[in-house]
């Protein structure tokens, strides 16, 4: 999902509600309202009563009421990644509304618990609160929830890293099953709420997110990206998927046939699949894939989309397009019926047509922000924290820590993110530590931010802000009082936010003026961002750096100057005011002063979720903000007993901190109970057992290009990487220690349809109780294909008292060891020995065993059969492209010398020819070579210009006869597409 609905839609929304008002009396005696009838019978009855126009009206996100049948309005899409969040943000009166309820730790934090039972309880709480908000206003908060996000955290620079769970598909699958099943509830026939998985498929970059294509060769698609979506659908823990903005192998995900052919094959339940916001219009806009909306919407419906999220509350363009598509023969009425059936199946399961709304219909607003949810939130926030380093038993803080300095830009604030609800209360790190210390302790604090004043050197006047609720910024006073002073917070790469000392509000642009009127940086364009750019004469230019500048809406007018009346306005760099930056108070000096006299210094640093990477904005580095790192260094020098609390949503390259700071504790932005949970962990009331769900690299230089999705070729993620990370996947420390003994496998060799069961004795060898996350990995020793270095197969979080031992049993299906055999296009469990490794992280293996798997041996390739070009074994330069707009993948060679290879092909007594399905806009060639891209040339096929990249012809070429087993290479000259090929005798 992308943009929130702007305020101008309020009138439209209100009119819609008025027009679609539902009569008080419903047709209660109709068969579709009889819960005793089978679900399909009820759906059939209702579909049979709907007119074609009414059916088409249900295909838009805002499904109108049908008064003659007593059916109310239904809306797909309420955000619920870690609590119920915003929806349309407009109530019946046209007012902006927010979901003020329980805000749990961000999704990546939920996964960091590695505790599926806990995450299921969180999901249940979110489902209950969704029901509560729905009871308050069903037109704002629907019960079709757009969560969880199961896109894999392949690249830690992804702007939406906070929304996902892990770089690993098995962990992602387990957490999504837990969260989704919690949301849905345990009734076998009804749903508390209906979770929708986001975003199908391979959506892990924000840069040009609607026009970039994720090139997925079959193994990566099957074994990695699809593997993250399959578990929740197969477990009936999700009721549909949202198609992503990006293209997959050259085809927009909105018309990806996987929505029908793959996702629906994983379950016998009906899925309600939706588009992302505005994505249908991209098909004719930025993606230019179809010439008209009727053709685009028809293609999406046939691919498996049921609900169109587009044009805000205005269903007109969608209903017109579908109606036109029917008239033009692009769709059949049965296509519409199929989509409506999917929609109604979920609405029925939600209890909408049952007396009293079904088993969950009685949940009301009392379910929001309950004491039980607050307690669960505190527990979850504590369980999610990861102790990255703890030299010299710095933590937990003991009785000697009675004077604590709490320092840093996040010490007395809690931030929400784009998909957060509004916290009804906030316990900050400072407040949590103060409460935990009690009256016998002393807490000093400082945010460590410079307080500055900005004087226009030409006029001698200072930038002046308003008091109270704020006012338009002007150049006014000639001396610097509170109204001329601002706290400058550094978020990295030169980005600052300026908080007015006059009223504690942040300065931002409101499309007309600069005003100090915001509690926090916020909004889609985050208009509270600035840069101070030093000039050769020692002055500074003040640059407005709100996200709308990235769209270049203002051209060169990105700098501030004073207008004739002193009001600050935008202008060009050469016309900008030159300011003298006066540091009224040094943040570092204040931090050092606080740290020097303390028993321990707790430095709370990290990210601002609206600034440091978010939807539509990837990170371009992974460093801690320069000013924050300087603060940490100064505090560490002033007080050797320094603890860094890193509060952010993603891996950070904190090499200096790891080398020099005694203790480092990571937490995501964890909601209202952050301060309590942090104090619980710092003082040992809770023993940290969170584990990292993705690798933390030492440097961004260790990562491949963020648009390269082939984790096998690029050796990316812990699965394939051989680089030494800063922190490995699964890493996390404890205040106690654990020993592992007696790893045993329950049986000898296992067949592909068998189950692997491993048991290991785990002992708490320390002096305090704690949780260990026991992790089981495997590695396949021999294979036809490149295998992961290790891969998570099972895990379990266990609690052990000091000295206690438990035998932990972990199991998985032998079928989970299968790979996608590109030679035959199917799953295969190979015959091989596997290392079974158990320990505390991917790099902390304590015990090993050998598992013999009685699978099959993949035979040599038979290239005399028609072979899909996309089923190659290796490649250089090529990309996967769409064979046709409707279906199929092909290979596109974009530069001379690009190639694909097919390993271990049995040419028998010799191939004498090549036959290939090709397309090209200009003539090119395909060379057939052996052994390497520069190996023996067997022959060359000439590819003619076919007029269109999707217009295929068959070409042939003679080959020099060669027999035996060889690696066969197809080497391209020109921009050539290959659909399939076969060798001939």
Walkthrough of the structure:
- By secondary structure, this protein is of the alpha+beta class.
- 21% of the residues lie in helices and 27% in strands.
- The strands form 14 sheets. The chain has a 6-stranded mixed sheet with strand order 10-27-26-25-11-12, sandwiched between helices. Strands 37, 39, 40, 42, 45 and 47 form a 6-stranded antiparallel sheet that branches. Strands 38-41-46-43-44 form a 5-stranded antiparallel sheet, with no helix packed on it.
- The radius of gyration is 30 Å and the shape is globular.
- Residues 2-26 have low confidence and may be disordered.
- Residues 865-984 form the CBM6 domain.
Provide the spatial order of strands within the biggest beta sheet: 10-27-26-25-11-12
What is the distance, rounded to the nearest whole angstrom, between the alpha carbons of the first and last residues?
A: 53 Å
The domain tally reads 4
Global morphology: globular
- Biggest beta sheet summary: 6 strands, mixed
The CATH class name of the largest domain reads Alpha Beta
Which bin fits the share of residues in helices? 10-25%
In CATH, what is the homologous superfamily of the largest domain? Glycoside hydrolase, family 3, N-terminal domain
Helix count? 19
CATH topology of the largest domain: TIM Barrel
Overall pLDDT metric = 95
GO molecular function, one term: hydrolase activity
Domain CBM6: 865-984
Organism: Sphaerisporangium corydalis
Keywords: Hydrolase, Signal
